Amino acid sequence: MPTALVTGASAGLGDGFARALAKEGQDLILTARRVDRLEALATKLRAAHGVAVHVFAADLARPGATEELLADVAAAGLSIDLLVNNAGYGARGGFAELDRDEQLGIVDVNCRALVALAHGVLPQMIARGSGGILNVASTAAFQPGPWMAVYYASKAFVLSFSEALHEEVRDKGVRVSALCPGPTRTEFADRAGMKDLASFDAVWADADAVVRDGLAAVRANSAVKVSGTINTLMADSVRFLPRILARKVTGTIQKRRG
Ligand SMILES: NC(=O)c1ccc[n+]([C@@H]2O[C@H](COP(=O)([O-])OP(=O)(O)OC[C@H]3O[C@@H](n4cnc5c(N)ncnc54)[C@H](OP(=O)(O)O)[C@@H]3O)[C@@H](O)[C@H]2O)c1
Predict the structure, then answer these.
(1) pLDDT in tens, 115-124
(2) How many domains, in total, are found in the chain?
(3) CB of 14 closer than 6 angstroms to any ligand 1 atom
């Protein structure tokens, strides 16, 4: 059965994607590490919407995890018609002081697993002439981010990769979009060690609005969707700023955020 795979469905935007898709009657595969949360969500969505919801636990930072996940999906007789590559995290602080493995994990989850899953589902989508991949990037993708260097670089990777893939498969009936949210109310900021600033607080977006933008983007096959008017203006304006200024401003904001 055609099914949507949502990574990072145990919290925040992933939980929102799962809820929105289930409401539309879409069968789901949910994955993350916190399987108790996934099971609780799956139970709710089955009862509320009558959809099939499959839960597979995976630590996407672990080597081999994406291969095991795709093998589990195939063994269950499922085929993926929408991949929401959403799982991700960041870490705020000086690169040299932050834990090495935590930062390598950002590359593994935000980039490596995202690429591996896209590569796992694309051949079937191309063969069917239909399907979609929504990669969750960030407004962090548009400039370097001192004091959160690996996270910003990971999202620049996601944006560039998604745009390139979009061009490669657009004539094959397969849609690929990058969603770029700005600051959004989820567990992300706590996990990343970003304490709130009043000015930062004012621009928090609601996760449901970001989810709506993402699903609309992949349905319309928009290569890139920046969520929110202020974020769109900021992402556009960065293109006209000297790169030195963009990175200095971003670094100043990130440094003060602690
Ligand atoms: N919130 C924001 O301000 C913001 C802004 C721009 C972009 N984003 C992006 O949006 C996406 C979703 O983040 P969110 O805001 O919803 O954050 P969140 O509430 O912290 O949720 C992150 C999700 O990623 C999963 N995840 C993290 N590490 C994982 C791992 N090793 N293996 C498998 N799953 C893992 C978590 O599941 P488990 O912990 O259960 O494994 C969780 O379900 C991320 O890619 C993030 O970079 C967020």
Answers:
(1) 999 999 999 9
(2) 1
(3) yes
Q: How many CA atoms lie within 13 A of 133 on its CB side?
A: 31
- Amino acid at the residue 15: D
In 13-78, DSSP assigns E strands to: 28-32, 53-57
Q: Which domain holds residue 165?
A: 2-256
DSSP string covering 154-217: HHHHHHHHHHHHHHHHGGGTEEEEEEE--SBSSSHHHHHT----HHHHTTPBPHHHHHHHHHHH
The pLDDT tens digits of the residues spanning 169-215 come to 999 999 999 999 999 999 998 889 886 554 556 678 999 999 999 99
Pairing, β 224-226 against β 28-32: unpaired
CA 226, 149, 234: angle at the middle one, nearest 5?
30
User: Does the beta carbon of 86 lie inside 6 Å of ligand 1?
Assistant: yes
Rounded to an integer, what distance in angstroms lies between the CA atom of residue 121 and that of residue 118?
A: 5
Q: Is 66 in the pocket of ligand 1 (CB under 6 A)?
A: no
Say how many residues make up the chain.
258
Nearest atom of ligand 1 to the alpha carbon of 151: 47
Is 151 a catalytic site residue? yes
Residue nearest to atom 34 of ligand 1 (CA): 32
9 and 136 in contact (C-beta within 8 Å)?
no
Given the residues 142, 151, 161, 188, select the one marked as catalytic: 151
Domain CATH code at residue 149: 3.40.50.720
